Amino acid sequence: MSAVPNSSSNAQASPPTSPTQPSGSPKRKRILLTIAAVFAIAAIAYGSYWTLVSRYYEDTDNAYVQGNVVQVTPQIAGTVTKIHADDTNIVKAGQPLISLDTADADVALAQAEAQLAQTVREVRTLFAAQAQSKANLLVREAELARAKDDLNRRKALAGSGAVSGEEIRHAESAVNAAQAALDAAKEQLASGRALTEGTSVASHPNVQRAAARVHEAMLAQSRSTLYAPVSGEIAKRSVQVGQRITPGAPLMAIVPLDRLWVDANFKESQLREMHVGQPVTLTSDLYGSKVKYDGKLVGLAAGTGSAFALLPAQNATGNWIKVVQRVPVRISIDPKQLAEHPLRIGLSMRAEVDLHDQQGAPVGSATGTANAMTAYVAAADAVEAKAKARIDTIVAANLK
């Protein structure tokens, strides 16, 4: 006999019907609203910061320290006998760097001085010959006057028969000869005057030419020692003792560490609001953010880095892809800060330009103040004075 299912057990097994639940809880809504509010506040804060602060600053870490590299090159050929400075040494302007063998220069100077002495004596002879020519002219004039007197006396006696016609002809020939001798004396005097008129022995062109050779020889002798043209640090020394060098060969370089600047490579889109004279804050990887340099915009390079590359980009050929270019902007550094925290050429920098000041000329249309450099010239001035004194001594000694 089959069993009949119990209705009460089936009723207990079926789950009870629950009321309808809401699609979202209030807690979840509050979380989403909070997140949205945070993002909105962040966006408003960033927009406010950009409007009030950030849009007035442009920065880049594509910036490097640059400076002048002054080459030390000889002006004469010679053999190196001594080197007074090496790489990393700090030198002052006018300090000896390299000495060359002076034997050839000494011989050339001795020859030039001897030539000057001989020239002074030769010019003295010209002046003495001029005086002799004047005396000779007087003699010729006296001889002509005597010959004319003789001729006149003979002509006066010709009517009386006391003087023959032959004697009169001889007297006329004597007058003609005296006149010719007088003309020759005048020409000789004029020739001597052409060589000496308007000058003295010391100012005669021949003496001046010989004196210039002495000056040249002394200049070559002084150039046997190479001096530092500027103050700075020695770099790239390539010369060695005993080396035979030629004029213009680079021997070493000097970097003036007190005249460094920064070339910051800004994107072309960052240059719109940049003007000459705007302040720049610089930080170096060498010292970190704890050391800040105060700089100023000086000017803009004449072209982008790719334009002056060894192999410039040929954008007119092949498939072209636009690349944002960077332009070097020169930034000067406060010399006092540079002295307190020295930099070296090639160090990485970070530059931040303050764009608030818009009074200066745009960086693309004006250049800043030139950072002029002057070479050491005291040695050349000393050579000039020494050469003049030596020439005057030689001339005076040979005028006695």
Radius of gyration: 48 Å
Low-confidence stretches: 1-14, 17-21
Order of helices and strands: HHEEEEEHHHEEEEEEEEHEH
Into which percentage range does the β-strand content fall? Answer: 15-25%
Morphology call: elongated
Q: End-to-end span in angstroms? A: 171 Å
What structural class should be given to the helix and strand makeup?
alpha+beta
Structure description:
By secondary structure, the chain is α+β, with helices and mostly antiparallel strands. It has a domain at 113-200 and 382-397. Helix content is 41%, strand content 20%. The chain contains seven helices and 14 strands. The chain has helices spanning 7-13, 26-52, 103-157, 165-196, 205-222, 335-340, 378-397; strands spanning 57-66, 70-72, 78-83, 90-91, 96-100, 225-227, 232-235, 244-245, 252-255, 261-267, 279-284, 288-300, 326-333, 348-354. The strands form three sheets. The protein has a six-stranded antiparallel barrel with strand order 1-10-13-12-11-14. Strands 2-9-7-4 form a four-stranded antiparallel β-sheet, with no helix packed on it. Strand 11 (279-284) and strand 12 (288-300) form a beta hairpin. The longest helix is centred in the first third of the chain and has 55 residues, at 103-157. The radius of gyration is 48 Å and the shape is elongated. 20% of the residues are buried.
